[in-house]
Amino acid sequence: MKEQAESIIKNVGYYVYMVVNMYLNEVQRMRISYNKLWKLLIDKKMSKADLRKAVEMSPNTMTKMRRDEEVSMSVLLKIANYLKCDISDMVEFVDTEEQEA
What we know:
By secondary structure, the chain is mainly alpha-helical. It has two domains: 1-30; 32-94, 434 Repressor (Amino-terminal Domain) (Orthogonal Bundle). It is built from six helices and two strands; from the N terminus they run αβααααβα. It has helices at 2-29, 35-43, 48-54, 59-66, 73-83, 96-100, and strands spanning 30-33, 92-95.
Protein backbone atom coordinates (compact mmCIF):
# COMPACT_ATOMS: atom_id res chain seq x y z
CA MET A 1 0.00 0.00 0.00
CA LYS A 2 2.83 2.39 0.91
CA GLU A 3 4.64 1.67 -2.36
CA GLN A 4 1.45 2.30 -4.30
CA ALA A 5 0.92 5.63 -2.52
CA GLU A 6 4.51 6.67 -3.23
CA SER A 7 4.07 5.76 -6.89
CA ILE A 8 0.89 7.84 -7.12
CA ILE A 9 2.61 10.81 -5.46
CA LYS A 10 5.52 10.57 -7.91
CA ASN A 11 3.13 10.43 -10.88
CA VAL A 12 1.07 13.36 -9.61
CA GLY A 13 4.23 15.36 -8.94
CA TYR A 14 5.48 14.66 -12.46
CA TYR A 15 2.10 15.61 -13.94
CA VAL A 16 2.04 18.90 -12.00
CA TYR A 17 5.62 19.60 -13.14
CA MET A 18 4.67 19.01 -16.79
CA VAL A 19 1.57 21.24 -16.59
CA VAL A 20 3.51 24.08 -14.94
CA ASN A 21 6.32 23.71 -17.47
CA MET A 22 3.88 23.87 -20.42
CA TYR A 23 2.25 26.96 -18.92
CA LEU A 24 5.57 28.72 -18.41
CA ASN A 25 6.69 27.92 -21.95
CA GLU A 26 3.46 29.37 -23.33
CA VAL A 27 3.70 32.51 -21.20
CA GLN A 28 7.28 33.09 -22.28
CA ARG A 29 6.23 32.78 -25.93
CA MET A 30 3.80 35.68 -25.70
CA ARG A 31 4.56 39.33 -25.10
CA ILE A 32 2.40 42.40 -24.82
CA SER A 33 2.39 45.18 -27.42
CA TYR A 34 0.96 48.68 -27.16
CA ASN A 35 1.45 49.47 -30.85
CA LYS A 36 -2.31 49.76 -31.31
CA LEU A 37 -2.40 52.43 -28.58
CA TRP A 38 0.40 54.43 -30.18
CA LYS A 39 -1.43 54.33 -33.54
CA LEU A 40 -4.64 55.41 -31.81
CA LEU A 41 -2.83 58.38 -30.28
CA ILE A 42 -1.50 59.38 -33.71
CA ASP A 43 -5.04 59.23 -35.12
CA LYS A 44 -6.23 61.47 -32.27
CA LYS A 45 -3.23 63.81 -32.73
CA MET A 46 -2.21 63.25 -29.14
CA SER A 47 1.27 62.74 -27.70
CA LYS A 48 2.24 60.11 -25.17
CA ALA A 49 3.06 62.91 -22.73
CA ASP A 50 -0.43 64.39 -23.18
CA LEU A 51 -2.00 61.00 -22.47
CA ARG A 52 0.17 60.47 -19.41
CA LYS A 53 -0.89 63.81 -17.95
CA ALA A 54 -4.55 63.37 -18.86
CA VAL A 55 -4.90 60.05 -17.03
CA GLU A 56 -2.49 61.03 -14.24
CA MET A 57 -0.13 58.18 -15.03
CA SER A 58 3.32 58.06 -13.46
CA PRO A 59 6.33 58.53 -15.73
CA ASN A 60 7.54 55.05 -14.72
CA THR A 61 4.32 53.48 -15.96
CA MET A 62 4.61 55.26 -19.30
CA THR A 63 8.20 54.03 -19.58
CA LYS A 64 6.98 50.47 -19.00
CA MET A 65 4.45 50.90 -21.77
CA ARG A 66 7.04 52.32 -24.15
CA ARG A 67 9.12 49.19 -23.48
CA ASP A 68 6.08 46.92 -24.08
CA GLU A 69 6.11 45.76 -20.47
CA GLU A 70 3.05 44.82 -18.44
CA VAL A 71 1.14 47.52 -16.55
CA SER A 72 -1.81 47.19 -14.20
CA MET A 73 -5.32 46.69 -15.45
CA SER A 74 -6.43 49.86 -13.65
CA VAL A 75 -4.03 51.91 -15.81
CA LEU A 76 -5.39 50.33 -18.97
CA LEU A 77 -8.96 51.01 -17.83
CA LYS A 78 -8.15 54.67 -17.15
CA ILE A 79 -6.69 55.04 -20.64
CA ALA A 80 -9.59 53.20 -22.26
CA ASN A 81 -12.12 55.40 -20.45
CA TYR A 82 -10.26 58.55 -21.41
CA LEU A 83 -9.93 57.56 -25.08
CA LYS A 84 -13.45 56.07 -25.13
CA CYS A 85 -12.27 52.75 -26.50
CA ASP A 86 -11.86 49.15 -25.45
CA ILE A 87 -8.66 47.65 -24.04
CA SER A 88 -8.44 45.42 -27.13
CA ASP A 89 -8.20 48.62 -29.21
CA MET A 90 -4.97 49.48 -27.37
CA VAL A 91 -3.24 46.24 -26.41
CA GLU A 92 -2.47 42.96 -28.09
CA PHE A 93 -0.50 39.85 -27.32
CA VAL A 94 2.18 39.00 -29.85
CA ASP A 95 3.62 35.53 -30.36
CA THR A 96 7.39 35.99 -30.17
CA GLU A 97 7.99 32.92 -32.34
CA GLU A 98 5.95 34.42 -35.22
CA GLN A 99 7.80 37.70 -34.88
CA GLU A 100 11.22 36.02 -35.12
CA ALA A 101 10.28 34.11 -38.29
